[in-house]
Amino acid sequence: MKRDIRIDALRALAILLIMFAHTHPPQWLYELRDFDVILMTFILGASYRLSTERKKKPKSYLTYLKERFLRLIVPAWVFLSFFFLILFIYTFITGQTFPFHLKKILTSYSFIWGIGYIWIIRVFFIIAILSPVLYWLAKKTSRFLMQIGLIGIFLLLQKGLNTAIAGLSGTSRSIFEQYGAISFGYLLAALVGMWAIRQRKRENLLLFTCFLILFLFTANNQNLPSIEANKYPPTIYFLSYGLAGSLALFLLASNQSIKQLLQKIPGIHWLSQHSLELYYWHLFPIMYFNLFVANDPWLLRLTVVFPLAIILTILQTKFAPHLFQAKK
User: Fold this and answer.
1) DSSP 18
2) Closest among 287, 268, 285, 275 to 324, alpha carbons compared
3) Domain that holds residue 72
4) Interior CA angle at 75 toward 81 and 94, to 5°?
5) Is residue 199 part of a domain?
6) d(Cα 255, Cα 9) in Å, to the nearest integer?
7) What integer is the mean pLDDT of 1-20?
8) How confident is the model at residue 327 (pLDDT cuts 50, 70, 90)?
9) N or C: which terminus of the chain has fewer CB atoms within 10 Å of its end residue's CB?
């Protein structure tokens, strides 16, 4: 099956930008790259539609769910177990105090904050659960005005979820916020990805223009607030920025000359194929800096995290290729 270079290139870019964000770059760069998770979920939607339409015989929903669970949830648990074991050994040898209490460890496995960073796997899995529904909606709303109407419904629902959080507290607030309000916002990105991959340039330009106008309107109306501050849970301001950015990059990657150039760049397919492994491995140096290094400069993180994550991923995929792959 021939791979779509646009999917590989944008997935590779998204994972690199997510890793970049964790190096704590200057604030203006941190804000500028804040479309990265939206882009990743946009690509999830696009790749789901491509893979679904290429299959001659569709899998049952339960079989599909099992595959997604084994692809996303089990490897995340494997990573967490490996991470906590390595951390325990390190603190035992160095005589330092283990930095996490039991509640933080358990909430990590439940994908509700915990040590942080793993929430993204929860979002990916929820999108996977609902992708068949999103795909059905994408096929039913091929016309621009229908898409705008559906986008409006999604954004209003998101605003309602965000407002409902204020009336909750404690554990119920955490669960509702994490599994509801935060995760729901990224469903729209997956839906737009499903539209974009099968639309002409004109339709995608119209969608891009609408999200750009919405972003500029909300930015002006709210006096240009921080994009990152609108991420948990995602607001209309954050979503419109992320989707405008994702569509702009998709349009750029769809240009024939750019596609030919991307085909010649080595490493794009590898970065895309091993994006999850890269994500897990880059967290080891990131967490080391977070826990044991005070006031480390950004450039130090940058020059350590990226090479180390790539080297560890190469070694792992060579000598333990199934480490983050559950048996089917």
Assistant:
1) H
2) 275
3) 5-319
4) 25
5) yes
6) 13
7) 94
8) low
9) N
